[in-house]
């Protein structure tokens, strides 16, 4: 006989964008880490910062397998630079994970409502 399991947890992933000069930060919460979520977050970020043909934004990213190469479709105005493997010290946003993890990791959370102010039409929480 096999016991029935009822998982009582959900994963929630954070995409973070930080302007290294001003410290201004933008966070996007998604239920999965995959290429579709990545493209949706990049589109939402591009729109939020006004990226376009006349306004270019450089995004520094780690080598996550879910990141999409520019050839597969970054929003207009978004350019990316991928850091070498195992180089978190070069990634400005790495410093934020201590702050987000300290309050969220391994916690019993009844509702995301205190974390998530809005949900976009694409399902991205920002």
TrEMBL record:
Residue span, Tc1-like transposase DDE domain: 8-109
Cross-referenced InterPro entries: RNaseH_sf (IPR036397), Tc1-like_DDE_dom (IPR038717)
GO MF: nucleic acid binding
Domain of life: Bacteria
Protein name according to UniProt: Transposase
Organism listed in the record: Deinococcus sp. VB142
